[in-house]
Amino acid sequence: MKLTIAVIPGDGIGPEVTAQAKKALDAVAEVYDHIFLYKEAQMGACAIEATGNPLPDKTIEICKKADAILFGAIGELKYDNDPSAKVWPEQGLFQLRKELGLFCNIRPVKAYEKLIKNSPLKREVIEGTDIVIYRELSGGIYFDTKELSEDGLSAFDVCSYTVDQISRVTHLAFKAAQKRKKKVTLVDKANVLETSRLWRKTVTEIAKEYANVKLDFMFVDNAALQIVLNPKQFDVILTENLFGDIISDEASVICGSIGLLASSSVGEKTAMFEPIHGTYPQAKGKDIANPLGSILSAAMLLEHFGLQEEADAIKRALEKSLTLGITTEDIKGKNQYSASTSKVGGFIADYILNQEDSNM
Ligand code: IPM
Ligand code: MN
Predict the structure, then answer these.
(1) Domain spanning 1-100+277-360 has what CATH number?
(2) Residue 305 has pLDDT above 50, yes or no
(3) Most informative mutation of 136, 240, 245 for ligand 1 (most atoms within 8 A of CB)
(4) Is 252 exposed, middle or buried (0-12, 13-18, 19+ CB in 10 A)?
């Protein structure tokens, strides 16, 4: 298969972790005889510095022409701390999601046997957890009107949803549940929000088309509690944009490190793959950040194109790195045995190449 992949390394540790995902993809290309062509593009603080724009037109063009996008992370502290900034890095990401029609963000959360001891949660609570979060990505409070009053004394962000926006992500969540444990939990705040009531109504209607899937509802405050109290009760979590953002970070404690969580954003055409973590500015350029979230995002990219065997090769290599303890300091602790970002990436790539040797 020949794929053109737009690569947006972004800011902070984005470039370091994305480079490791590319190594894994290159190893897969070699072993399974594919051609992956990379086209690098800028977005975020680095793009503001270079062009004044967090999402230059050139980047949009490269992404639209590509089959898929591999993205690192964006953001920079100086913008977080400057409420008067006219442009900021995250705007690039929202705009790109919009330009590409990415309406569904898929975030798998699973407990890895080797990392159970890394989680602050008890073994019996998390062992066997396997959840996937379907987060609506094109609407809600992220995208509607925002305003700061002229006197600077008040502000608002409007949260709105249409039935169409709710429906399209809901169908994807139910289709996923059909291939899993056949349960969808809609997380909302229907006791307060009108948008949540519309979600409940729409999702309840759609659920009738998926008779073998059980639907239940949970208020987001309770969901935040249940995710750490009894995560095994969940299969597919379906939720709106902001709730999905928050609970997916929370759910990462099950995994032992947020550095391991990957995601895909799918929509009308091109899909985008990225780790869920941020830019981890303290680690920038130090070769210490965990590249596994980015590497797993590359595996999700392969799955998206039906390359399951190839994705499994990456996952086996990742499991092996965990088994052998070739892991970064977020997993190992800051000790002399923790491996660098590039060492973990190099190990994964080598393992993919050598698995082929052992198959022959
Ligand atoms: C995410 C991130 C983004 C979001 C930020 C960087 C704007 O937290 O993808 O989860 O809130 O969507
Ligand atoms: Mn987030």
Answers:
(1) 3.40.718.10
(2) yes
(3) 245
(4) buried
